[in-house]
Amino acid sequence: MKQILYPLFIFSFSFSCFPSVLAYKKYYDDTSNFTSSKANLNENKISEKSVYSKWQLFKFIHDTTIISYLKLFSGHQCAVESVAFSPDGQSVLTGSDDKMAILWGLKGNKKITFEGHQHNITSVAFSPDGQNVLTGSVDGTAKLWDLSGKEIRTFKGHKAPIWSVAFSPKNQSILTCSDDYTVVLWDLLCNKKMTYNLPCTTVLSVTFSPDGQSILIGCYDGTAILYDLFGNEKQIFKGHESAVWTVAFSPDGKSILTGSDDLTVKLWDLSGKVKQTFEGHNSYIWSVTFSPDGQSILTGSEDGTAKLWDLTGKLKQTYKGHQLPVRSVAFSPDGQGILTGSEDGTAKLWTLFTK
Fold it and tell me: Which fold has domain 60-351?
Protein backbone atom coordinates (compact mmCIF):
# COMPACT_ATOMS: atom_id res chain seq x y z
CA MET A 1 0.00 0.00 0.00
CA LYS A 2 1.48 3.28 -1.10
CA GLN A 3 1.80 5.86 1.65
CA ILE A 4 0.33 9.31 1.14
CA LEU A 5 2.80 12.15 0.90
CA TYR A 6 0.48 15.12 0.68
CA PRO A 7 2.05 18.27 -0.82
CA LEU A 8 2.13 20.77 2.01
CA PHE A 9 2.83 23.58 -0.42
CA ILE A 10 -0.83 23.36 -1.41
CA PHE A 11 -1.38 25.98 1.27
CA SER A 12 0.39 28.55 -0.90
CA PHE A 13 -1.99 28.06 -3.83
CA SER A 14 -4.75 30.55 -4.50
CA PHE A 15 -6.94 28.10 -6.38
CA SER A 16 -10.61 28.06 -7.20
CA CYS A 17 -12.72 24.91 -7.46
CA PHE A 18 -11.56 21.35 -7.97
CA PRO A 19 -14.07 18.70 -9.02
CA SER A 20 -13.54 17.74 -5.38
CA VAL A 21 -10.78 18.24 -2.86
CA LEU A 22 -10.95 14.48 -2.28
CA ALA A 23 -10.66 13.74 -5.99
CA TYR A 24 -7.68 16.09 -6.10
CA LYS A 25 -6.11 14.28 -3.17
CA LYS A 26 -6.67 10.88 -4.79
CA TYR A 27 -5.16 12.12 -8.08
CA TYR A 28 -1.93 13.10 -6.37
CA ASP A 29 -1.86 10.01 -4.17
CA ASP A 30 -2.21 7.77 -7.21
CA THR A 31 0.26 9.54 -9.48
CA SER A 32 2.77 11.07 -7.05
CA ASN A 33 2.64 14.08 -9.37
CA PHE A 34 3.13 17.21 -7.31
CA THR A 35 4.08 19.56 -10.15
CA SER A 36 0.73 20.96 -11.34
CA SER A 37 0.60 24.70 -11.78
CA LYS A 38 -2.24 27.03 -10.91
CA ALA A 39 -3.23 26.96 -14.57
CA ASN A 40 -3.52 23.16 -14.45
CA LEU A 41 -5.69 23.37 -11.36
CA ASN A 42 -8.02 25.94 -12.87
CA GLU A 43 -8.67 23.59 -15.78
CA ASN A 44 -10.34 21.27 -13.25
CA LYS A 45 -13.16 23.66 -12.30
CA ILE A 46 -16.61 22.06 -12.14
CA SER A 47 -18.18 22.12 -15.56
CA GLU A 48 -20.85 19.73 -16.74
CA LYS A 49 -19.67 20.17 -20.30
CA SER A 50 -16.11 19.21 -19.41
CA VAL A 51 -17.18 16.22 -17.33
CA TYR A 52 -19.74 14.70 -19.64
CA SER A 53 -19.76 14.33 -23.40
CA LYS A 54 -23.19 14.70 -24.98
CA TRP A 55 -23.48 10.92 -25.14
CA GLN A 56 -22.44 10.45 -21.50
CA LEU A 57 -24.95 13.07 -20.38
CA PHE A 58 -27.71 11.42 -22.41
CA LYS A 59 -26.83 8.03 -20.97
CA PHE A 60 -26.85 9.44 -17.43
CA ILE A 61 -30.34 10.88 -17.88
CA HIS A 62 -31.58 7.74 -19.63
CA ASP A 63 -30.27 5.41 -16.92
CA THR A 64 -31.49 7.51 -13.99
CA THR A 65 -34.71 6.56 -12.27
CA ILE A 66 -35.98 9.79 -10.78
CA ILE A 67 -37.06 9.59 -7.15
CA SER A 68 -38.63 12.87 -6.18
CA TYR A 69 -36.52 14.88 -3.78
CA LEU A 70 -38.18 17.32 -1.44
CA LYS A 71 -35.75 20.21 -1.73
CA LEU A 72 -32.67 21.32 -3.63
CA PHE A 73 -30.03 23.35 -1.80
CA SER A 74 -28.18 25.28 -4.49
CA GLY A 75 -25.78 28.12 -3.80
CA HIS A 76 -22.26 26.73 -3.55
CA GLN A 77 -19.84 27.40 -6.39
CA CYS A 78 -17.95 24.13 -5.96
CA ALA A 79 -18.35 20.58 -4.72
CA VAL A 80 -20.30 19.98 -1.51
CA GLU A 81 -17.98 17.82 0.58
CA SER A 82 -19.98 17.45 3.79
CA VAL A 83 -23.59 17.72 4.96
CA ALA A 84 -25.34 17.55 8.34
CA PHE A 85 -28.79 17.99 9.90
CA SER A 86 -29.25 20.14 12.97
CA PRO A 87 -30.24 18.13 16.06
CA ASP A 88 -33.79 19.49 15.90
CA GLY A 89 -34.04 18.62 12.20
CA GLN A 90 -35.05 22.15 11.23
CA SER A 91 -31.83 23.20 9.48
CA VAL A 92 -29.24 21.77 7.11
CA LEU A 93 -25.52 22.49 7.03
CA THR A 94 -23.28 22.14 3.96
CA GLY A 95 -19.52 22.57 3.57
CA SER A 96 -17.90 23.12 0.21
CA ASP A 97 -14.72 23.39 -1.79
CA ASP A 98 -15.68 27.06 -2.30
CA LYS A 99 -14.28 27.63 1.25
CA MET A 100 -17.74 28.31 2.69
CA ALA A 101 -20.26 26.52 4.86
CA ILE A 102 -23.94 27.41 4.58
CA LEU A 103 -26.79 27.00 7.06
CA TRP A 104 -30.10 26.41 5.27
CA GLY A 105 -33.74 26.26 6.21
CA LEU A 106 -35.64 23.19 5.07
CA LYS A 107 -37.31 25.22 2.32
CA GLY A 108 -33.92 25.70 0.67
CA ASN A 109 -33.46 29.23 1.95
CA LYS A 110 -29.99 30.39 2.97
CA LYS A 111 -29.92 31.44 6.62
CA ILE A 112 -26.23 31.99 7.37
CA THR A 113 -22.96 31.77 5.43
CA PHE A 114 -19.80 30.87 7.35
CA GLU A 115 -16.73 32.45 5.75
CA GLY A 116 -13.19 32.49 7.10
CA HIS A 117 -11.32 29.43 5.90
CA GLN A 118 -8.49 30.00 3.44
CA HIS A 119 -9.09 26.77 1.52
CA ASN A 120 -11.66 24.07 0.84
CA ILE A 121 -13.97 22.94 3.65
CA THR A 122 -13.84 19.16 3.99
CA SER A 123 -16.06 18.43 6.99
CA VAL A 124 -18.92 20.06 8.94
CA ALA A 125 -20.78 19.16 12.14
CA PHE A 126 -23.39 20.56 14.50
CA SER A 127 -22.81 20.62 18.24
CA PRO A 128 -25.14 18.23 20.11
CA ASP A 129 -27.15 21.17 21.49
CA GLY A 130 -27.45 22.68 17.99
CA GLN A 131 -26.02 26.03 19.07
CA ASN A 132 -22.68 25.83 17.29
CA VAL A 133 -21.16 24.67 14.02
CA LEU A 134 -17.75 23.08 13.49
CA THR A 135 -15.84 23.13 10.20
CA GLY A 136 -12.59 21.50 9.07
CA SER A 137 -10.50 22.61 6.12
CA VAL A 138 -7.63 21.92 3.77
CA ASP A 139 -6.03 25.01 5.35
CA GLY A 140 -5.19 22.79 8.35
CA THR A 141 -7.56 24.45 10.81
CA ALA A 142 -10.94 23.75 12.35
CA LYS A 143 -13.27 26.58 13.28
CA LEU A 144 -16.07 26.86 15.83
CA TRP A 145 -18.94 29.21 14.93
CA ASP A 146 -22.15 30.40 16.50
CA LEU A 147 -25.38 30.32 14.48
CA SER A 148 -25.09 34.00 13.58
CA GLY A 149 -22.01 33.17 11.50
CA LYS A 150 -19.56 34.60 14.01
CA GLU A 151 -16.26 32.74 14.31
CA ILE A 152 -15.72 31.87 17.97
CA ARG A 153 -12.42 29.97 17.87
CA THR A 154 -9.87 28.54 15.46
CA PHE A 155 -8.18 25.25 16.29
CA LYS A 156 -4.59 25.36 15.02
CA GLY A 157 -1.91 22.71 15.30
CA HIS A 158 -2.19 20.33 12.38
CA LYS A 159 0.54 20.55 9.76
CA ALA A 160 -1.59 19.38 6.83
CA PRO A 161 -5.22 19.35 5.65
CA ILE A 162 -7.96 18.33 8.06
CA TRP A 163 -10.23 15.68 6.56
CA SER A 164 -12.80 15.12 9.30
CA VAL A 165 -14.16 16.79 12.44
CA ALA A 166 -16.56 15.62 15.17
CA PHE A 167 -18.20 16.84 18.38
CA SER A 168 -18.26 14.64 21.47
CA PRO A 169 -21.81 13.57 22.44
CA LYS A 170 -21.75 15.71 25.59
CA ASN A 171 -20.43 18.76 23.74
CA GLN A 172 -17.23 18.89 25.80
CA SER A 173 -14.59 18.04 23.19
CA ILE A 174 -13.95 17.91 19.47
CA LEU A 175 -11.89 15.61 17.28
CA THR A 176 -9.91 16.48 14.18
CA CYS A 177 -7.96 14.19 11.87
CA SER A 178 -5.37 15.24 9.38
CA ASP A 179 -3.06 14.34 6.55
CA ASP A 180 -0.21 14.83 9.06
CA TYR A 181 -0.97 11.30 10.38
CA THR A 182 -2.47 12.54 13.65
CA VAL A 183 -5.81 12.77 15.39
CA VAL A 184 -6.21 15.52 18.00
CA LEU A 185 -8.71 15.68 20.86
CA TRP A 186 -9.40 19.28 21.87
CA ASP A 187 -11.41 21.02 24.53
CA LEU A 188 -13.66 23.83 23.35
CA LEU A 189 -11.08 26.46 24.33
CA CYS A 190 -8.65 25.13 21.68
CA ASN A 191 -6.45 23.30 24.16
CA LYS A 192 -5.08 19.97 22.99
CA LYS A 193 -6.18 17.25 25.41
CA MET A 194 -4.63 14.35 23.50
CA THR A 195 -2.68 13.80 20.29
CA TYR A 196 -2.92 10.34 18.82
CA ASN A 197 0.19 9.43 16.85
CA LEU A 198 -1.07 6.51 14.87
CA PRO A 199 0.50 3.38 13.39
CA CYS A 200 -1.45 3.76 10.15
CA THR A 201 -0.95 6.22 7.30
CA THR A 202 -3.17 9.25 6.75
CA VAL A 203 -6.37 9.33 8.81
CA LEU A 204 -9.35 10.07 6.59
CA SER A 205 -12.32 9.94 8.96
CA VAL A 206 -12.99 10.14 12.68
CA THR A 207 -15.99 9.89 15.00
CA PHE A 208 -16.87 9.48 18.68
CA SER A 209 -18.72 6.50 20.11
CA PRO A 210 -22.25 7.33 21.32
CA ASP A 211 -21.09 7.28 24.95
CA GLY A 212 -18.13 9.54 24.14
CA GLN A 213 -15.61 7.12 25.66
CA SER A 214 -14.02 5.85 22.44
CA ILE A 215 -13.02 7.17 19.03
CA LEU A 216 -13.05 5.41 15.70
CA ILE A 217 -10.76 6.32 12.81
CA GLY A 218 -10.62 5.28 9.16
CA CYS A 219 -7.21 5.03 7.52
CA TYR A 220 -5.71 5.20 4.05
CA ASP A 221 -4.05 1.81 4.61
CA GLY A 222 -7.48 0.11 4.57
CA THR A 223 -7.94 -0.33 8.32
CA ALA A 224 -10.20 1.21 10.93
CA ILE A 225 -8.98 1.50 14.52
CA LEU A 226 -10.87 1.88 17.79
CA TYR A 227 -9.17 3.79 20.64
CA ASP A 228 -10.13 4.90 24.09
CA LEU A 229 -9.75 8.59 24.89
CA PHE A 230 -6.29 8.03 26.37
CA GLY A 231 -4.84 6.66 23.15
CA ASN A 232 -5.02 2.97 24.02
CA GLU A 233 -5.79 0.81 21.02
CA LYS A 234 -8.87 -1.35 21.60
CA GLN A 235 -9.41 -2.99 18.21
CA ILE A 236 -8.15 -2.95 14.62
CA PHE A 237 -10.68 -3.71 11.90
CA LYS A 238 -8.98 -5.36 8.92
CA GLY A 239 -10.78 -6.55 5.82
CA HIS A 240 -10.91 -3.78 3.26
CA GLU A 241 -8.57 -3.91 0.30
CA SER A 242 -8.11 -0.17 0.01
CA ALA A 243 -8.52 3.16 1.84
CA VAL A 244 -11.29 3.55 4.42
CA TRP A 245 -12.74 7.01 3.73
CA THR A 246 -15.66 6.94 6.13
CA VAL A 247 -16.61 5.40 9.48
CA ALA A 248 -19.70 5.46 11.71
CA PHE A 249 -20.97 4.02 15.00
CA SER A 250 -24.40 2.45 15.39
CA PRO A 251 -26.68 4.40 17.76
CA ASP A 252 -26.29 1.71 20.44
CA GLY A 253 -22.50 1.74 20.07
CA LYS A 254 -22.31 -2.03 19.49
CA SER A 255 -21.48 -1.97 15.77
CA ILE A 256 -19.49 0.12 13.34
CA LEU A 257 -19.61 0.85 9.62
CA THR A 258 -16.70 1.41 7.25
CA GLY A 259 -16.78 2.53 3.62
CA SER A 260 -13.85 2.02 1.28
CA ASP A 261 -12.17 2.58 -2.06
CA ASP A 262 -12.72 -1.16 -2.65
CA LEU A 263 -16.40 -0.39 -3.48
CA THR A 264 -17.72 -2.09 -0.33
CA VAL A 265 -19.21 -1.12 3.00
CA LYS A 266 -18.69 -3.39 6.00
CA LEU A 267 -20.68 -3.80 9.19
CA TRP A 268 -18.56 -4.99 12.13
CA ASP A 269 -19.03 -5.92 15.75
CA LEU A 270 -16.60 -4.40 18.25
CA SER A 271 -14.49 -7.57 18.36
CA GLY A 272 -13.44 -6.93 14.75
CA LYS A 273 -15.72 -9.54 13.16
CA VAL A 274 -17.41 -8.64 9.87
CA LYS A 275 -21.17 -9.09 10.28
CA GLN A 276 -22.16 -8.00 6.76
CA THR A 277 -20.57 -6.71 3.56
CA PHE A 278 -22.66 -4.40 1.39
CA GLU A 279 -21.94 -4.54 -2.34
CA GLY A 280 -23.74 -2.67 -5.08
CA HIS A 281 -21.98 0.62 -5.69
CA ASN A 282 -19.89 0.91 -8.83
CA SER A 283 -17.18 3.12 -7.41
CA TYR A 284 -15.56 4.44 -4.20
CA ILE A 285 -17.62 4.83 -1.03
CA TRP A 286 -17.29 8.35 0.35
CA SER A 287 -19.85 8.40 3.16
CA VAL A 288 -21.76 6.01 5.43
CA THR A 289 -24.19 6.50 8.31
CA PHE A 290 -26.74 4.61 10.41
CA SER A 291 -30.39 5.55 10.64
CA PRO A 292 -31.39 6.92 14.06
CA ASP A 293 -33.08 3.61 14.97
CA GLY A 294 -30.00 1.65 13.85
CA GLN A 295 -32.00 -0.57 11.51
CA SER A 296 -30.85 0.89 8.18
CA ILE A 297 -27.68 2.31 6.71
CA LEU A 298 -27.12 4.95 4.07
CA THR A 299 -24.14 5.10 1.72
CA GLY A 300 -22.88 7.71 -0.75
CA SER A 301 -20.56 6.94 -3.63
CA GLU A 302 -18.37 8.20 -6.43
CA ASP A 303 -20.90 6.51 -8.75
CA GLY A 304 -23.29 9.44 -8.15
CA THR A 305 -25.83 7.55 -6.06
CA ALA A 306 -26.85 7.12 -2.46
CA LYS A 307 -28.18 3.73 -1.35
CA LEU A 308 -30.37 2.65 1.55
CA TRP A 309 -29.83 -0.85 2.97
CA ASP A 310 -31.14 -3.00 5.78
CA LEU A 311 -28.67 -4.66 8.13
CA THR A 312 -28.81 -7.98 6.25
CA GLY A 313 -27.29 -6.30 3.19
CA LYS A 314 -30.57 -6.04 1.26
CA LEU A 315 -30.76 -2.95 -0.92
CA LYS A 316 -33.94 -1.05 -0.12
CA GLN A 317 -33.56 2.02 -2.33
CA THR A 318 -31.17 3.78 -4.69
CA TYR A 319 -31.31 7.58 -4.83
CA LYS A 320 -30.34 8.96 -8.24
CA GLY A 321 -30.42 12.54 -9.33
CA HIS A 322 -27.03 14.13 -8.69
CA GLN A 323 -24.94 14.80 -11.77
CA LEU A 324 -21.64 14.00 -10.06
CA PRO A 325 -20.36 11.87 -7.14
CA VAL A 326 -22.19 11.87 -3.80
CA ARG A 327 -19.64 12.95 -1.20
CA SER A 328 -21.71 13.00 1.96
CA VAL A 329 -24.96 11.55 3.31
CA ALA A 330 -27.02 12.07 6.48
CA PHE A 331 -30.31 10.97 8.03
CA SER A 332 -32.72 13.48 9.53
CA PRO A 333 -33.07 13.09 13.32
CA ASP A 334 -36.51 11.50 12.91
CA GLY A 335 -35.16 9.06 10.33
CA GLN A 336 -37.73 10.07 7.73
CA GLY A 337 -35.50 12.25 5.56
CA ILE A 338 -32.20 11.78 3.75
CA LEU A 339 -29.67 14.46 2.88
CA THR A 340 -27.06 14.07 0.14
CA GLY A 341 -24.20 16.40 -0.80
CA SER A 342 -22.54 16.15 -4.18
CA GLU A 343 -19.58 17.17 -6.24
CA ASP A 344 -22.14 18.85 -8.52
CA GLY A 345 -22.27 21.68 -5.95
CA THR A 346 -25.72 20.90 -4.55
CA ALA A 347 -27.33 19.13 -1.62
CA LYS A 348 -30.69 17.39 -1.84
CA LEU A 349 -33.29 16.43 0.72
CA TRP A 350 -35.18 13.22 -0.06
CA THR A 351 -38.11 11.36 1.42
CA LEU A 352 -37.41 7.90 2.78
CA PHE A 353 -38.98 5.86 -0.01
CA THR A 354 -38.46 2.13 0.37
CA LYS A 355 -39.29 -0.76 -1.85
Answer: Methylamine Dehydrogenase; Chain H (2.130.10)
